[in-house]
Amino acid sequence: MNDQDQIELSNLRNLYCVGRNYRLHAAELGNEVPSSPMIFTKPTHAAIEMRGGSLELPGTQGSVHYEAELVFAVNRAYEPGIRCDDLVSAFTVGLDLTLRDVQDKLKAKGHPWLPAKGFRNSATFGRWLPFPGIASLSEYDFGLRINGNEVQRGNAVDMVFDLQQIVDFVGQHYGLGAGDILFTGTPEGVGSLNEGDQLDVWWNEISLGILTTRLSEV
Question: 121 near 147, Cβ under 8 Å?
Fold first, then answer.
């Protein structure tokens, strides 16, 4: 996949995300592992590419947590029985950014997560790569470096629900089509971001995108 083949943000439709899909991450936040995929969404206005610029984030609403995730692009409509290898065209590593203090308050009240998960720039995308097929996903690790230090490392083999299960669940319950995106959960090691942090997402030790945080005063 070359630069001309990169997925345009203007063509994105639904951003589906899977919560608590790595057991150790669920454990580090004191959450139970769900018995079926826990799905939430982000607005398309949350999307931003990791091309070396600044990442503007809320700086007055408590901690902003990073969550590095494998992200997949859907290129056709879901049909019962379809294989994810025939449905997914590309993948990358991105960040599901979270206002953790806001989320904790929402969870305590039983309210939706949108204010904590759907703010602008809360869904980042690295450089897209051709999808190698579900059987090849576990051949390499992915992760996040902050200021040159590795803070997260994960592998698709450790997902509670694999990509095919996620595709089937989302496709059957909500629908999937060209332009839809799947964030598939984060491994352990999440934490807070600070002003000026350089975020570098990677796959197979190769950088797919960099952004530098800027915490706003509003």
Answer: no
Amino acid at 105: K
Task: Please tell me the distance from the alpha carbon of residue 114 to that of residue 40, in angstroms, as a whole number.
Answer: 9
CB 178 within 8 Å of CB 15:
no
Give the per-residue SS3 of 17-70: EEECCEHHHHHHCCCCCCCCCEEEEECHHHEEECEEEEEEEECCCCCEEECEEE
pLDDT value at residue 5: 56
Q: Are strands 88-96 and 129-130 parallel, antiparallel or unpaired?
A: antiparallel
Element (H, E) at 107: helix 100-109
Residues facing residue 17 across a β-bridge: 40, 183
**Mean per-residue pLDDT for 30-37?**
86
Tens of pLDDT along 171-214? Answer: 999 999 999 999 999 999 999 999 999 999 999 999 999 999 99
DSSP letter for 179, please. T
Strand partners for 210: 51, 200
pLDDT tens, 146-166? Answer: 999 999 999 999 999 999 999
**CA pair distance 197, 170, nearest whole angstrom:** 34
Whose tokens are 């996040």? That residue is: 144
